[in-house]
Amino acid sequence: QVQLVESGGGLVQPGGSLGLSCVASGSIFSVNYMAWFRQAPGKQRELVAQIKKDGTTNYVDSVRGRFTISRDSAKNTVYLQMNSLKPDDTAVYYCNVGATISSGLYVFWGQGTQVTVSS
After folding, report:
1. β 10-12/113-117 pair status
2. 74 Cβ partners below 8 Å, 6+ apart?
3. Can you give the pLDDT at residue 28?
4. pLDDT tens across 27-50, in order?
5. Which residues touch 33 (CB under 8 Å, ≥6 apart)?
6. Facing residues of 33 across strands?
7. Which of 54, 86, 89, 109 has the most other CB atoms within 10 Å of its CB?
8. Is the separation of the CB atoms in 113 and 9 below 8 Å?
């Protein structure tokens, strides 16, 4: 089994910065991609940023230029640096990992971490 542990959420003022991290542990053969999703109250969960095995990244338009996703492959850790935060960025942020384990390719989710942008 694979466990994802997120950290770094909290309260920040508009225009501020916050960093999230997510560590994947367990019997992982390889990580295919790592990503961050978010879900605001009353809204659907949306993909925020993704980083693939080859290092390719993609972002939802609303965060491009403000957020940066990165990873430490040796530690199976993904980061999300969030700058110039806006109240609309308020949501629960979820780590999402596609990984190959002994029984095949699966998608795993973290428990979520709250990010609140408010003055």
Report:
1. parallel
2. none
3. 87
4. 888 999 999 999 999 999 999 999
5. 50, 51, 52, 53, 97, 98
6. 52, 98
7. 89
8. yes
Positive or negative, the CA dihedral 86, 88, 92, 93 is: negative
Q: Contact at 8 Å (CB) between 94 and 4?
A: no
Mean pLDDT for the chain overall: 96
Say how far apart CA 99 and CA 51 lie, in whole Å.
13
Question: Which strand (E) or helix (H) includes residue 39?
Answer: strand 30-39
Residue that the structure tokens 């990010």 belong to? 115
* Cα separation of the two ends of the chain: 40
What are the phi and psi torsion angles at 87 (to 5°)? -55, -35
Grouping H, G, I as helix, E, B as strand and the rest as coil, residue 8 is coil
Specify the pLDDT at position 27: 87
Please identify which residue in the block is written with the tokens 């997510």: 22
